[in-house]
């Protein structure tokens, strides 16, 4: 059984402090390089089969694209209709008291035609690939999530007829990005799709902002995912995320609510990463909807808590999952990134290490 990570790792305190105090670009790059080196060493020491650079150069997981596009600019006052609801009191949940979500309120909106200015993902890959001994994965955001989070009916319609047209253009830009990565030797790309789980919660604001009903939104999002996962010679995965910001989430409920509409239609995804870290994820029955030729990566290790899971409990849950999808087509990972937002989830670096080691140990034990 292969072991994976989803994407991000906790940022070192020195790197967080440097970003807060706005050090020179040269000094920031030095600290980022050190953080990437440490992230790679940590994953490889834990025995993770497919690794990332820990997303150490990003402020938030989608910076790899949104942070380097012309056409997304600050607007004050201003905020996308979707993001306005996403940072609302009822959108995010936690087992502890709520944490501050103001950092999501970036006030960035689509104000013009989008264009790739540079490639943060390519910079990430070129540095990390020179140091990684294990296969290296690059993570990118889905077309639907980017277009919706930065869409504004007031500010964006001068550039695009509607958000659906913007989603199509983001998909085109992602294909260009993936082609550039492949040309430099990248062979693993993950497309993160938190948008696919909003219909589980019936968070209508997300798809209504796109002018679509629930079913048409799911069909459109899956169509766009397939359209970007086409580069020859690249292994593609998608992560069906339930929200991850400083220990909080936006979606509860089993995958059964979307499984029939999504899982059989992910034609171009070789691996599907699913979150199964606690009871709010539901049972494994929806795995029966995933075609048998695809690998399901079970996110059984939580990145949201400071408690390390029991190996026996995790292996028991893998046995349960194998009732609905072939064991030889199962893999293991943490449930999400450890720091999808730069501030990170509420756990220590020691716990992060222990959880990664657990992922590696279980992967090795079930491969033998």
Major sheet summary line: 6 strands, parallel
Shape: globular
* Strand elements, count: 8
Please give the oligomerization state of what you see: single chain
Number of domains: 1
* Cα gyration radius (Å): 19 Å
In sequence order, what are the helices and strands, one letter per element?
A: HHHEHEHEHHEHHEHEEHEH
Strand order of the largest sheet: 3-4-5-6-7-8
The CATH topology label is TIM Barrel
Give the structural class: alpha/beta
For the termini, the CA-CA separation is 8 Å
InterPro entries: Met_Synth_C/arc, UROD/MetE-like_sf
Protein name: Cobalamin-independent methionine synthase II family protein
Pfam family, one: Meth_synt_2
Search tags:
single chain, 368 residues, alpha/beta, TIM Barrel, six-stranded parallel beta sheet, two-stranded antiparallel ribbon, 8 strands, UROD/MetE-like_sf, Cobalamin-independent methionine synthase II family protein
Topology diagram in text:
Blueprint: H1 13-21, H2 25-46, H3 63-66, E1 69-74, H4 81-86, E2 108-116, H5 120-129, E3 137-141, H6 143-149, H7 163-183, E4 188-192, H8 204-208, H9 214-228, E5 235-240, H10 259-262, E6 271-275, E7 295-301, H11 311-321, E8 330-334, H12 349-367
Parallel strand pairs: 3-4, 4-5, 5-6, 6-7, 7-8
Antiparallel strand pairs: 1-2
Domain Cobalamin-independent methionine synthase MetE C-terminal/archaeal: 17-342
Pfam family, one: Meth_synt_2
Protein name: Cobalamin-independent methionine synthase II family protein
Description:
The chain has 368 residues and is α/β, with parallel strands linked by helices. It has a single domain, classed as TIM Barrel (Alpha-Beta Barrel). It is 36% helix and 13% strand. The strands form two sheets. Strands 3-4-5-6-7-8 form a six-stranded parallel β-sheet. A two-stranded antiparallel sheet has the order 1-2. Strand 5, helix 10 and strand 6 (271-275) form a beta-alpha-beta unit. Helix 2 (25-46) runs parallel beside helix 12. The chain is globular and about 55 Å long. Residues 17-342 form the Cobalamin-independent methionine synthase MetE C-terminal/archaeal domain. This is Cobalamin-independent methionine synthase II family protein.
């Amino acid at each position: 059984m292969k072991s994976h990570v989803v994407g991000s790792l906790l940022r070192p305190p020195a790197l967080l402090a440097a970003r807060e105090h706005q050090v020179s670009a040269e000094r920031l790059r030095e600290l980022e390089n050190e953080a990437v080196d440490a992230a790679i060493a940590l994953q490889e020491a834990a025995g993770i089969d497919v690794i990332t650079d820990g997303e150490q150069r990003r402020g938030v997981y989608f910076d790899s694209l949104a942070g380097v596009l012309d056409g997304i600019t600050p607007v004050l006052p201003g905020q996308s209709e979707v993001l306005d609801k996403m940072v609302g009191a009822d959108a995010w949940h936690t087992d502890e008291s709520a944490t501050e979500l103001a950092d999501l309120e970036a006030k960035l909106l689509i104000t013009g035609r989008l264009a790739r200015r540079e490639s943060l993902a390519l910079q990430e890959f070129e540095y990390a690939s020179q140091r990684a001994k294990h296969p290296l994965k690059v993570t990118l955001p889905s077309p639907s999530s980017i277009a919706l989070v930065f869409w504004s009916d007031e500010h964006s319609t001068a550039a695009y007829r509607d958000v659906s047209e913007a989603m199509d253009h983001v998909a085109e830009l992602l294909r260009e990005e993936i082609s550039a990565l492949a040309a430099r030797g990248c062979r693993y790309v993950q497309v993160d799709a938190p948008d696919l789980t909003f219909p589980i919660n019936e968070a209508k604001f997300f798809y209504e902002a796109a002018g679509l009903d629930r079913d048409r939104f799911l069909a459109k999002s899956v169509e766009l995912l397939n359209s970007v996962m086409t580069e020859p010679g690249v292994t593609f995965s998608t992560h069906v995320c339930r929200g991850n910001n400083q220990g909080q989430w936006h979606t509860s409920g089993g995958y059964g609510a979307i499984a029939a509409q999504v899982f059989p239609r992910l034609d171009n995804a070789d691996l599907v990463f699913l979150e199964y870290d606690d009871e709010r994820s539901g049972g494994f029955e929806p795995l029966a909807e995933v075609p048998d030729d695809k690998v399901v990566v079970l996110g059984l290790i939580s990145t949201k808590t400071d408690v390390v899971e029991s190996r026996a409990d995790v292996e028991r849950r893998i046995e349960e999952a194998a009732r609905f999808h072939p064991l030889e087509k199962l893999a293991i990972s943490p449930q999400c990134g450890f720091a999808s937002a730069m501030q990170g989830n509420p756990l220590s670096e020691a716990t992060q290490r222990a959880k990664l080691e657990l992922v590696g140990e279980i992967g090795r034990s079930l491969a033998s």
